[in-house]
Amino acid sequence: MQHAKRIMAYFYMPLLFLVIGYGVFFLAARPILDFVHNTVHLITLDRPPKFSAEKTTKSLKLVTANQQQTLKMDHLKLPTYGDQFGQLTIPAVGLEQPLYFGDGEQQLAKGVGMYNGSRFPGERGTTLVAGHNVTAMHNLNQVQVGQQIVVRTSYGVYTYGVTKKLVAKYNDAQAFDLSGRQPKLILYTCYPINMVGLTPDRLVVYGSLQSGPIIKM
Amino acid sequence: MQRTLRHLGEGILAFVLTFFLFTFSVLTIVQFTLLNPKFMHQQVVHSGYVSAVTSEAHQNISNLGAGSGIPKKVLKSVPSKYNVQQDINTFIDRAYAGAGIKLEATHIKKQLRTQVYAYARMKHLPLNQTTRHAVEQYVNKSVDQYAQSVQVPYLIQIGKNVQAIKQYVLLGLLGTLLLCLVLGSVLKKQVKLAHRMWRYLSYCLTGNGLMLIIAPYMLLGSQVIDRLGIGTKGLYRLVTTYLHTFVWIFIISGLISLAFGLGCIVISEVRRKNRIHRSEVS
């Protein structure tokens, strides 16, 4: 009996110390523990986060010819950020690049990117498209007034005529004016084309819509 | 009755000793982990944070280069993993010393200038004052982005907090150690028989071991650490690796304490048997 009691003591005494010790600790540190608990609740998720290699973007199928003269906005399947939804071609200078929705680093690394705060080709307003001077728009400086720019999208084919070409500062609000209801296109890249380093200048090419279905609300 | 009261008193003494032993263990672990920059260095290596930062910094510098007329292939070796590791280590040491750091990254600047000018010469591009100014702008902006990639978020603030509490933790450590020794000697005086002293020591060590194991184990089981809402993969892996290792150190310390407790049980039983045998013989 004594032997059993002695052996049992090797188990229940440490367990008793554990329970009383944690009890004392939790009582003494209650305010801190409450604060820690609330903070942890704020910074934790329901499940461990997943880091996919890159957000899955898609390439929309491009049309080859226009079927209608007008399109309804709610009938269109518009791209989400990062999707390729078109192709930009300037036949006169041999420029042909995929057109992405969004002008972030990932899009500009693959082609030209449409600023997602501007209008889609076909909408009333300005479509602003950027590209790097060392890759996608390395020959933009060869474009001349009067030449054609073709933008083939997932809903229509648009042709623009080049109306103006100039060099402006990157923060020139007038050069990059997106207000106005006339459908037009602005292409821009860093200038000088063959310069290395960060330059404040941009080569800007303007085009006005010549043909393509107009998007109505 | 008196015997019961005596045993109760000894039990309370043993519990208080256990509690201070637990506090001492916790403070020792904190001293060698949270307050020690070497521990952070180790976790940076184990979590692959250096590779993640190197990749991120390279991506940022290349993207900036693409916007500066510099093709990706010109900058493929910038920055090197070795340099990134050195800079992260320097940043950690300075942060833990409570000092801020402005990363000069002269090695990055030198590499970028060399490679960009070599590319410009190869392409017969004009290298006038305007170009040189533009290249300097690019180099400076690249270094700024590199510095942002290298600096572990919030570590400077953590380092300042570490400096603030370091001396108190050390004082607490010495204080609890002293208390443990005092309580241990008081208990030894109270408990007349040596094998009983070993028995109480085993209660203390196994109790301490259990306290070091149970709560951290429950924390691991709840997966709170894995559910931290950190946006970048590299930083997420660093923080979770750091916290997992920190928690596991508690568990391993608890297991070591349990092992010592077990040893004390064996010693107590052996000494008890020897004492009984001696008294039977005499």
How would you describe this structure to a colleague?
The complex is a heterodimer of chains A (217) and B (282). Chain A contains three helices and ten strands. Chain A is an alpha/beta fold and 217 residues long. Chain A has two domains: 2-43; 70-216, Sortase (Sortase, Chain: A), CATH 2.40.260.10. Chain B has 282 residues and is mostly helical. Chain B folds into two domains: 2-41 and 173-281, no CATH class; 51-150, no CATH class. In chain B, α3 packs across α4 (81-96), α4 packs across α7 and α5 packs antiparallel against α6 (129-150). Chain B is rod-shaped and about 105 Å long. At the A-B interface, α1 and α3 of A face α1, α3, α5, α6 and α8 of B.
Characterize this entry briefly:
The complex is a heterodimer of chains A (217) and B (282). By secondary structure, chain A is α/β, with parallel strands linked by helices.
What percentage of the residues of chain B does DSSP assign to strands (E)? under 5%
Number of domains of chain B: 2
Extract low-pLDDT stretches of chain A: none
Assembly of the depicted chains: heterodimer
CATH class call of the largest domain in chain A: Mainly Beta
Strand count, sense and closure of the main sheet of chain B? none
How is the main sheet of chain A built? 8 strands, mixed, barrel
Q: So how many helices of chain A?
A: 3
Q: Give me the secondary-structure category of chain A.
A: alpha/beta
The N- and C-terminal alpha carbons of chain B lie at a distance of: 30 Å
What order do the SSEs of chain A take from the amino end to the carboxyl end, as H and E?
A: HHEEEHEEEEEEE
CATH architecture verdict of the largest domain in chain A: Beta Barrel
CATH topology of the largest domain in chain A: Sortase, Chain: A
CATH superfamily label of the largest domain in chain A? Sortase
List descriptors.
heterodimer, A: 217 residues, Sortase, Chain: A, 2 domains, 3 helices, 30% strand, elongated, B: 282 residues, mainly alpha, 9 helices, rod-shaped
